[in-house]
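User: Hey, quick favor. My workstation is busy. Could you predict this chain's structure for me?
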Amino acid sequence: MEHSTAPRQDRGPHFSGRVEDEALLRGLGRFGDDVKPDGALYAHFIRSPHAFAKLGRIDTAAAKAAPGVVAVFTAADLEAAHYHSISHGHPIPGRGGKPPVSPHRPVLAEKRVMHVGEPVAMVVAASAAQAQDAAEKVAVDYESLTPVTDAREALKAGAPQLWPDAPGNIGFDWTAPPDPDGKKQVALDKAFAEAAHVVRLELNNQRLVVNSLEPRTASASYDAAKNLFTIRCCTQSVSNMGMQICGIMGLKSDELRVLTDDVGGAFGMKGGAYSEYVAMLHAAKALNKPLHWASTRSEAFITDTHGRDSFYTVELALNKRGRFLALRVGCVGNLGAYVTGVAHFVFTLHIGGCLPTIYDIPLMQLNTKCVLTNTVPTGPYRGAGRPEASYLLERLIDAAAEKTGIDAAELRRRNLIAPENSLHHGFRQRVRQRRFSRGLRTRAQARRLRRFPGAQENGEEERQAARHRHRRLS
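Assistant: No problem, here it is.
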């Protein structure tokens, strides 16, 4: 599995800091839709208009006869390849040691569609416009089912059950910290029972649609002589992308090449594989032709991994002087229709690892239910975990200040972690060590980059020279 970004050149002795700014400001950046393979065909995806429905007959005859159309692919055309799930949850232990439930996420919808925007078929044509026009001729029979889109509603008795292996629609049940003998639970309950003040809030961290500056794009090709697949896509992690696609398609590491150029926004949602990439790689081999696809903005809203969408019940126990005694957090997190790789981390480890932020709270407990619903799958986005933890505590402290009559700033000051117990202790020494280590890495990376040959094709040499000129002059 070969991973690559755009080639770089040695910038001389001043090798540190940002390298991308000048090229991007001068319009010399190169993004996913700027590079298309010679003779590429164009892909367009038919997507479900239903949040939850049984999938019936898919009539592709009219689309296949449309001008410029080369092929139309459905799940039936991919069945013989036996592809694995597009995404599945990382198997961390939950309550009672049970790992997360990870329903199979097909490349193209098979028997049911689980959220609006799920890909059902792919049209391949000589141009993007022809592919889009032909897609309107694909007739799909749907039998609409009652969906559930709110995670809290999905937990109620009588709610539609989406997956048989996830009773109550619970994909992952988790609690922290570990309490094998139950002593922490006893101490927590006692702290709340004996507290002079108890503050309780219900808070909602709303769902986010990422809307990145550059929508997702991909080019796929296959070299039969070398048995080598190549995917060029805008991703923040070529390593993760390559490992996931190899796992999905059952490829060896040397049978896939992953390329990326400049990336116009990611923050988590471009870190993993998507259905479109696998479908395109399959078609590239089947047709022996390269393919290109660029998501529209409206597609991105219903296909790109979303963020957040969680509901919290938070409780804080305080003594008469306003000192924090215990914190209890209950979370209901919306996973969406399928489980992306570390979606359940956001509502569990990420938040749990950030509590109690900067405050000294002797006892804490976080109880989380990660719920499957008929919505676009969620995942980490822009520091997931840190915003939630700060949001919960700061709102709770404001409510505590109002209830106790203690000034909010003073209440925070009384409960700050003491300097000698904080990570800031010894800060200056760590800064000096970090600067020394960064210098070693800079010099080592400069030596490695001197071995890269200058790229001669597609104006890459000029682009890279412009990108790094400001450092040579400094």
